[in-house]
Amino acid sequence: GKSVNRAASDGLRSTYGGPLSTIVPRRYAVKAAPERQLRLLDLQAIDTRLSQIAHARSHLPELAEIADLQHKAGLLDDQLVRARTEVDDIAREMARADADVQQVRERAARDRARLDAGTGTSKELTAIQHELESLARRQRDLEDVELEIMERSEAAQSDVRELERGRAELGERITALEASRDDRLKDLDFEETGVSGPRAGLLGEIGDELIGLYDKIRATSGIGAAALTRRRCGGCQLELNQIELNRIAAAPADEVLRCEECRRILVRTPESGL
Predict the structure, then answer these.
(1) Helix (H), strand (E) counts: the chain
(2) How many CB atoms lie within 10 A of CB 212?
(3) CB of 34 within 8 A of CB of 274?
(4) Of 235, 225, 229, nearest to 257 (Cα)?
């Protein structure tokens, strides 16, 4: 039953001092010549640097600053649209006020001409005189309105100029940052090309089966293979116990080993301490 199997498993663990997986041969164990396994470390070094380059590419300090400035530029653009719209609205208001003043001036000029000519009855001439006085008051009121509109127009145009100046400065900063970003990306692209150059050749030397296992592990942990150096796994940095080291020392040279803690491929080297 399950209790018997568990007891048997516990007995095996007690006898061999480790988990059952360390003493039962794996059914689908991968075999690879030691030199092919060592080449995995070269491949891992390349892939580690390529990952670092990819991380650096997506985390350039310029990127965050550009994004922040572009957000601010968008807000400034919205303000500019509103400010320019206000200038246009005031200009139309000014045009209407000018038209009103001009209409009053023209009416006053006609009345003054009639008054100067003396044509009409005394009553008509008196009415014209009163109308001229009324038109003069109306003109003064309209000119006061014009003056107030002009003041608002000057303030609105000043706001537009200030916003345009700020937007231009922001655009220059963004352009400079984009140039810096492009230079750094170019450097990273150049390094990536140099680093990745030998990778294709390594894949051919290592072989599909071992590469398949390596890629599967690397997809989940970021590191597919690590060196066993001074009794320590280079992946999880944990020191192996003596029983595990004895098992590794006794394993055939072409057996592809896995760290029992992090499950990465464990590559034996002259510095393994076996």
Answers:
(1) 7, 4
(2) 11
(3) no
(4) 225
Name residue, tokens 């001036």: 105
In the block, tokens 């008509």 appear at 124
- Cα separation of 143 and 97, whole Å? 8
- Please report how the helices 199-206 and 208-221 are oriented relative to each other, as an axis angle in degrees rounded to 10: 120
**pLDDT one-digit tens code per residue, 7-42:** 333 433 333 344 434 444 443 478 999 999 999 999
Cα–Cα distance for residue pair 269/41, rounded to 1 Å: 10
Please give the Cα distance from 274 to 266 (Å, whole number).
13
Q: Please tell me the distance from the alpha carbon of residue 159 to that of residue 162, in angstroms, as a whole number.
A: 5
How far is C-alpha 44 from the chain's CA centre?
A: 28
- In the chain, the amino acid numbered 228 is L
Which runs of E-coded beta strand occur in 198-238?
A: 225-229, 232-233
H or E element, residue 14? helix 2-16
